[in-house]
Structure formats: structure tokens, C-alpha cells
Design goal:
With 177 residues, the protein is mainly beta. The protein is built from 1 helix and 8 strands; from the N terminus they run H-E-E-E-E-E-E-E-E. The longest helix is centred in the first third of the chain and has 20 residues, at 6-25. The protein starts with 5 loop residues before the first helix and ends with a strand.
């Protein structure tokens, strides 16, 4: 029988909680006028609050559901980054696409969301996080390339304040609305 470690138990609970939150936030019914988008990419996070001098790198993925050709979409993000310790950030976001012409090459959008940041290591902690950002998409056939930057605020609690991070994501998505 496989032994369950504390990290495995915490990971499963976070995953279940994140999934339940996403189901509650995203629309309850996906109709024929709605479409799902899946995205994957690379990420780098710069910490402005800490003086560690490093930039954790890793990967990110998202699932977005929105009305076809509509400006609004609900989105669930998961980011894993590592530099000495591993950090997992999960958020539920709202994206708002700017109006664009059919011939436009670059499609800008805003995103804002809230979720949690779980940092492993000797001082393992899970804290609430809020983010706001700007992204750009460019279609190449059925493939959509994206680049986005978000400002992340992680609330430390106990009167300590917040950490301020800049997250950069580069990747591709499929099934764009």
C-alpha cells in the first residue's frame, strides 16, 4: 500500500478545492453558443517584495469558457514555478477582450482574478492571492499564441502585509472563442 505524505494530502485537497471553486465561478451550463479554450505556456515570476534576487520559472495552464465571439470569459489558471522551493498558484479569473476588427493581428485583453498561492519547503504555507493583468493573442490557423503579464498580490496575513510579484506568461491556446 502506498503511503500518503502530507504534501500529497495537501495537494489533493487544494486540487479538489480549486476544482470546486472553478465550477462555482464558471457558468453552470455550456451551451452551443459557448466554447472552451485550453492554454499552456511557460512562466517567469519576478518578486518585487523580496530581495532574493531570483526569478522562479515554470509552467502554466488554463481553461477558459466564454460565449463565441463574446468579450467576456471565465478562466481557471494553474501555475507551477520553482527556484529552490516550488510554488503553486491557482486562480479563477475573468477576462475581457477589447473590440477588434476581423483583420486585426493582435487581440488585447484584460484579466483579473483571485485564488491561492501554495509555497512548499520547510515553511510550507497557503495564502490568498489577487491578480490583474494585460494580455495579447495572435492567431495562426487554429493555434492562438498569447503573451500576458499580471501583477500578483499575495496576502501574507498576521499583519505582515503583501508580496508584490510580476508574472510573465508565453504560450499557446486551442479552441479560441
Amino acid at each position: 500500500m502506498r503511503r500518503r505524505t502530507a504534501a500529497t494530502v495537501v495537494g489533493r485537497r487544494l486540487s479538489k478545492g480549486f476544482s470546486a471553486f472553478a465550477i462555482a465561478v464558471l457558468p453552470g451550463r455550456v451551451t452551443a453558443s459557448a466554447q472552451a479554450t485550453v492554454g499552456i505556456g511557460a512562466t517567469a515570476i519576478t518578486h518585487f517584495s523580496d530581495s532574493d534576487g531570483g526569478t522562479p520559472v515554470g509552467g502554466m495552464a488554463f481553461l477558459a469558457i466564454g460565449k463565441v465571439n463574446g468579450p467576456l470569459a471565465g478562466r481557471v489558471d494553474a501555475t507551477v514555478a520553482h527556484q529552490g522551493i516550488t510554488s503553486f498558484v491557482g486562480t479563477a479569473d475573468l477576462t475581457v477582450a477589447f473590440a477588434r476588427s476581423a483583420t486585426s493581428l493582435v487581440h488585447p485583453y484584460l484579466l483579473a482574478g483571485a485564488g491561492f498561492d501554495h509555497t512548499g519547503g520547510a515553511t510550507s504555507a497557503t495564502r490568498p492571492v489577487a491578480k490583474v493583468g494585460l494580455g495579447f493573442e495572435d492567431r495562426i490557423g487554429r493555434l492562438m499564441l498569447f503573451a500576458e503579464s499580471t501583477a500578483n498580490l499575495t496576502f501574507r496575513g498576521h499583519g505582515i502585509g503583501t508580496t508584490h510579484d510580476l508574472q510573465l506568461n508565453l504560450g499557446m491556446s486551442f479552441g479560441r472563442r
